[in-house]
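Hi, here's the filled form for the chain we discussed.

Project: internal
Contact: R.S.
Residues: 65
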Amino acid sequence: MIKVLSVVTCILFLQGCIYKVVTVPVKVAYKTTKGVVKGTTAVVGAVIPDGDDEEGDTDNKKNKD
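And the returned structure, exactly as it came back:
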């Protein structure tokens, strides 16, 4: 009975440590991946033109009015 109680007590005390051990690497991986995706999107957008011309869109709107 004492062993079970001591195990339960240890689990309750170490709950915060286990939470940190799991969440910190996940947060680091998320932030790293987020930065890589943003960088890749910027490079692809610069290399491959999408044909959108913002000035042309505003000129077409002015001509319609």
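Let me know if anything looks off before we file it.
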